[in-house]
Amino acid sequence: MSENLKELYQIQRVLKDSGYNDTSRISKEIQDYCNKKAISPTLVLERISTGEPWDYIRGESEFYGNRFYLNRKTLIPRPETEQMVDIAISFLEGNSNHKNIVDVGTGSGCIIISLAKLVGDKKGINFVGIDIDKDTLQVAKENSLLHKVNEKISFLRGNLLKDFELKDETLIIANLPYIPEEIYKKLDRSVVNFEPRRALLGGKDGLKYYKKLISQIKKARKKDISLLIEIEPSTLKNLRRILDNYEVHIIKDYRGLNRFILVNLDT
Ligand SMILES: C[S@@+](CC[C@H](N)C(=O)[O-])C[C@H]1O[C@@H](n2cnc3c(N)ncnc32)[C@H](O)[C@@H]1O
């Protein structure tokens, strides 16, 4: 067996022991990364064994078929979130009057950047990404440069929509921290020990940020405001109570879970 293959198998063993499923692809990525950086795979494997996610070690991830830079302040984009982009695209096709898209809790910028890439310039849409964390915003800006949509998107620091001047006919997209406390405590060590708490924990009931966001939107009293959010499926019942007077569309993720909510919050 060649040295190269032996090394690949060793990497795959460590990945498997650390709970990775897609060991063939990631082992190859690790090998290529170590060759490029001229470092020993042992250094990477030691970090993997502590639960550190591979995406943080390499400083990037994939979302909607594109590369996104990351650092430890930025949540690793999740595959299910890609569906938010598809839902937003079909929403815009049927609601051409919506000329503003605001991504609240933009993180790496993966949602708003993917949308800006996909929606043609002709539609004249304003794209905004908001986050409370300044380091995260820096990563989002770098990603917008990487994808050549930096001139299309404004990135702003803010506490949800506080101090943001919401306009009529806006689609607000938000994948805010939504994990209830009890569920958060039981998450894998690779999440709890390495990913930013601020990006995941949604208070006791997982709805702390969505409650606040909905109240800000209602207070702004604007016309034609639609809200698309990603939620923890178990929080749906409580969320519906808050949205009692509105027509709520529940969209399942690819695993069949109630993951996305689309609602028109007209006043
Ligand atoms: C679950 S992450 C989502 C990141 C990215 N949109 C994605 O889908 O991968 C939530 C993001 O919300 C941001 N955030 C947390 N509290 C916030 C607040 N009060 N106002 C604005 N952003 C906030 C976090 O910094 C984090 O980047």
TrEMBL record:
Molecular function via GO: protein methyltransferase activity
Pfam families per the UniProt record, alphabetical: Methyltransf_31 (PF13847)
Alphabetical list of InterPro entries matching this protein: HemK-like, Methyltranfer_dom, N5-glutamine_MTase, SAM-dependent_MTases_sf
Enzyme category, top tier: transferase
Xref: SUPFAM superfamilies: S-adenosyl-L-methionine-dependent methyltransferases
Methyltransferase domain sequence ranges: 96-170
BP-aspect Gene Ontology terms: methylation
EC id: 2.1.1.-
Keywords: Methyltransferase, S-adenosyl-L-methionine, Transferase
Residues in coiled coil: none
Position of the signal peptide: none
Keyword Lyase: no
NCBIfam families attached to this UniProt entry: hemK_fam
The protein, known as: HemK family modification methylase
Organism the protein comes from: candidate division WS6 bacterium 36_33
Lineage per the UniProt record: Bacteria, Candidatus Dojkabacteria
